[in-house]
Amino acid sequence: MAATIPTIEPYEVTCGDTWKWDKSLADYKPSETWALTYSFRSRTGTGFNVTGSANTANDGWNIVVAASATASYTAGEYDWQAYVTKGSERFMVDSGKLVVAQNLNAAVTGSTTDLRSHAKKMVDIIRTALEGRIDSDVENYSIGGRAITKIPVSELVSILATYEEKLEEEVKSRRLDNKHGSGRVVKARFNSLA
Predict the structure, then answer these.
(1) What is the pTM of this model?
(2) What pLDDT digit, counting tens, does each position of 104-114 carry?
């Protein structure tokens, strides 16, 4: 059984994988000679463009990016815009964010590359510091005339909460930017009027 091809842009993909999705636009169709192109740009200046192929079955586009092409892309977060062109006309039709993950299979083993975001790194560091503090329970001490003062546990807990919120916002923002919902579950209860 063949995999289902998504009809919305992905929000996370991996270098070295084949990327596929379909796109349909009611006002701009390939049968009317509109062409669809995506521009992806990172905050560091790297980027790439992808052109859709006309799909005569649904008068939309198939977007396929070969694994051989994605293998050379730089991992990171990209902003993207989709636009259609016909002759001298050009219209932006969609936009969002894409996270391109590193291909771990292609990464050198023993590499020291840290793939975590800043918020994730800080959450991990603070949690480790708090775990170490539980064992030692010392906030300040002096050795050879040099005083060392650690951040109080209450402040570490407050800083941890801040970074946990940032980390949650990163995930939620990435999902919302790509129309995948926030990931939050909304519960409702309906009462019978009978």
Answers:
(1) 0.61
(2) 887 666 656 67
